[in-house]
Automatic annotation (TrEMBL):
Domain HTH tetR-type, chain residue ranges per copy: 34-94
Keyword terms: DNA-binding, Transcription, Transcription regulation
Pfam families hit by this protein: TetR_C_1, TetR_N
Organism from which the protein derives: Blastococcus deserti
Name of the protein: TetR/AcrR family transcriptional regulator
Membrane spanning stretches: none
Top-level taxon of origin: Bacteria
Residues of the DNA-binding region: 57-76
SUPFAM superfamilies (alphabetical): Homeodomain-like, Tetracyclin repressor-like, C-terminal domain
PROSITE patterns the UniProt entry points to: HTH_TETR_2
Length: 257
């Protein structure tokens, strides 16, 4: 899946739309439109969830809404601004119970944050493929940032360390969840399930795991394959998250000394 980018539209227009400032919702002469920004964004998100972000265009969203593309442009300037609005809108789904980020131990809280982000990317796979070097600084993103910072607050960490920890956990989740999409893409493109693919390669495994050429791989690979079976992205996520939290624990311990 190709990577798309946030922040490619007019930043002033995007910010006005993200925060729904009066200028972005000005009263226009003539009959009141049945469309508004929220309806357009909702339709675009539904389309991206079903068919991927590449399917989203102003023309396609307009068609799904039963209107002309030019009608959409009177509310949203273009796809760049629309993508910013889409991402911020779905980020607002996170943490419906805000107390989860301040309940329990720091480890429990960060596990909650990581799992919430994992589940979010499964609901909206297109969001994981957005490059956010210029993130949409809307209310959805800022609420997410605020709540995730609370999960690491009052641990003796500096403000910079708090920000870096939140970034670290989010980056880990985003990297591991991509394995889910990659596995689905492989099955879709080849027409073979994971088990079918391994069955097709079985006659060659003696050559692949040649103990003379690849002694370490020949020792580890068959055992791991028997234990783990087909590649499981969520198992990799859980294992990696525990190791990541182990390291964070060392940082927090050092900060408390």
């Amino acid at each position: 899946m190709a990577t798309a980018f946030t922040g490619t539209g007019d930043p002033a227009r995007s910010m006005a739309l993200l925060w729904r400032t009066p200028a972005s919702d000005a009263v226009r002469p003539g009959p009141k439109s049945a469309l508004d920004v929220d309806r357009i964004v909702s339709a675009a998100v539904q389309l991206a969830d079903a068919e991927g972000l590449a399917a989203v265009s102003m023309r396609r969203v307009a068609a799904d809404l039963g209107t002309a593309a030019m009608t959409l442009y009177s509310h949203v300037p273009g796809k760049g601004e629309l993508v910013d609005l889409m991402l911020d809108a779905v980020l607002a789904e996170l943490y419906p119970d805000e107390e989860v980020v301040t309940s329990g131990t720091w480890r429990t809280r960060l596990k909650t944050v990581a799992q919430a982000n994992w589940d979010f990317f499964l609901r909206h796979p297109w969001a994981a493929h957005l490059a956010t070097g210029r993130p949409p600084l809307g209310p959805g993103l800022m609420r997410k940032y605020e709540l995730e910072l609370r999960a690491v607050d009052h641990l003796g960490l500096s403000e910079l360390q708090m920000d870096l920890l939140v970034t670290l956990v989010n980056g880990f989740v985003r990297g591991t969840v991509s394995g889910v999409q990659e596995k689905a893409d492989a099955e879709r493109l080849t027409g073979l399930s994971e088990d079918q693919w391994w069955a097709a390669t079985e006659p060659y495994l003696a050559q692949v795991f040649d103990a003379e050429r690849f002694p370490t791989a020949a020792r580890v690979g068959p055992i791991a394959g028997e234990e783990l079976g087909a590649y499981d992205p969520h198992r990799s996520f859980e294992f990696g998250l525990d190791r990541l939290l182990d390291g964070i624990g060392v940082l927090i311990l050092d900060a408390s000394r």
